[in-house]
Amino acid sequence: MTPQTPQSPQPVRAVIAVSSNKGGVGKTTVATNLAIYLRALYEDLPILVVALDDQSAIERMFRLQPAARGEENLKHGWAERSLDRVIQLGQYGIHFVSPPPDTEPLKARAEDPQTLQRILKRTDFDGLVILDTKSDLEALTLNALHAADLIILPVADWGSLEEAGKVFQLLERAHLLRVKRRILLTLVDRRTRVDAEGSHVHDRLIAAIDARGWPRFESYLPRSPRVEALLSASETPGSILHHARGTQVHQQLRGLAEEVAKDLDLGPGPSASGRLPRPRRSPRGPADTGLKRAFLRVFGQP
Description:
- The structure is a single chain.
- This protein has helices spanning 27-41, 57-62, 74-80, 104-108, 115-122, 139-147, 158-173, 201-212, 225-232, 240-243, 248-263, 291-298; strands at 14-18, 47-52, 87-89, 95-97, 128-133, 150-155, 180-188, 221-222.
- The chain is of the alpha/beta class.
- It has one domain (14-264): 3-Layer(aba) Sandwich (Rossmann fold), CATH 3.40.50.300.
- The protein has an eight-stranded mixed β-sheet with strand order 3-4-2-5-1-6-7-8, sandwiched between helices.
- It is globular.
- The two termini are 34 Å apart.
């Protein structure tokens, strides 16, 4: 899972885990939209999103065709110790793995926290994997943390800040010093004041994060009625890249994608001078139609 260098013939391969023990902080919004923004920045880099819970948001966002009867999902890939047979190409050129209807049986097979890491090493997918975790610190989430090269910790309020601290402690106890981890402020309204002096929640959280010495992203995910509408207006959640251009959240997500790319040493994307060495191209399908045009339009390329 070492990122590609110009001298290396091997494609880029890295794993991102989006994790919080607290629900409602925007984990899935971050995971899905970060995948789309990175796919736009690095159009030849295959990206796979895997949900380690039993919710359908990722499947609803990326699935192109209705699920076939008896279609295999993450549970089957886990049993085979490879995701090769359960990876699907979806909307926006993003690959995904369907979640199982119930993750409890999977937890029994995930007691070894390095199981997922071994599964990904055996999976023939030369690209970037994004893991969307459940709101807990149980077996599947621990597997995601052990497999990750970068952990994104969404923080929306003081409670989720404290939960992020538990992840930092867990990583230290597990001696996972190689794993990069950074706080991402999410769903914060910078207009919200918390005291008579006019202090903002956003500023209070940043001060607390910095006081603890925890690394954080400069970008953040602001609360946005537009995004809430994209997520709930229909059965299929909408992409911020394609449906919320010109908004603050769009600009922040672009910045987040660029920061993540720097953390993973992906090199400059098409919006900067120079390009990555091309990894092996993934199969193209209808989901890729217009992706390059969308990138050029959104990111201001001639």
